Write the structure tokens for this entry.
Amino acid sequence: MHVFVTGGTGTIGSAVVAELLGNGHTVLALARSDGSAQALESAGAKVLRGDLADLGVLRSGAAQCDGVISLAFGRDYSSANALAQAIAEESAALNALGQELVGSDRPIVTVSGTPWVPGRASTEADPLPTDGPVGGRGRSVNALLDLASRGVRSTAVRMPRTVHNQGRGGFAGLLTEQARRTGVAGYPGDGTQRWPAVHALDAAVLFRLALESAPAATAWHAVADEGDAVRDIATVIGRRLGLPVQEVPQENFGPFGPIFALDQPASSARTRDALGWQPAHPGLLEDLETIQP
């Protein structure tokens, strides 16, 4: 399959590109900079220059390929407004990609977060939130899945709060960056809240499986660790960086503060059973032990 990939140089995207190429697919990848283009070409992908806001370029990429994996998302999370802008840009991009595929029965796989459900681990059957700070992502993913009725094999891979590789990535990576800046390995609340996690290389396998075989209008959980306590995550970060570990106000984490404070474990039992996905790489706490001081 010839696959159009957006966000192909990020923690998840670079692993997805390698997974596709290693399993007989070819890749056309969106690149917004010379550095990204060089990295993608070095990996073996063909490059289409443009960024997520170039809707005509996105439609062209989708038109040239047998399927799409949409991973790109803005990098500015410094404020609620910046996060909202990134969500709006992603929504417009998903709409453009999905409309290009209408009537073709070609697959498109997009990314979202696992939902949170009070008192238990969320499952693939639970709906995404459509309100709150990231509700816009839920609405745009739902709109894409609805295109199944118009001849699009649209699916979503729901990612946990931390997608990691060599100690970097996801919410745990943000905790690490904050610790380096402030000199404290901090966590919001009492630290007992749980975050699910997955290694990027394991997540990449699930994106490929969804692209190849997942039925239309389905959602899957890329969850290897059902829930690691945030205090345990901060403890490893503090030990690796030689910093004190303590509770800090959730406001210190900007627009992510309310999300960081939630207990949000997630299950992937249905995903494993239905698609045969089996995570094989180190869990989050083990992977964080590779953080360099």
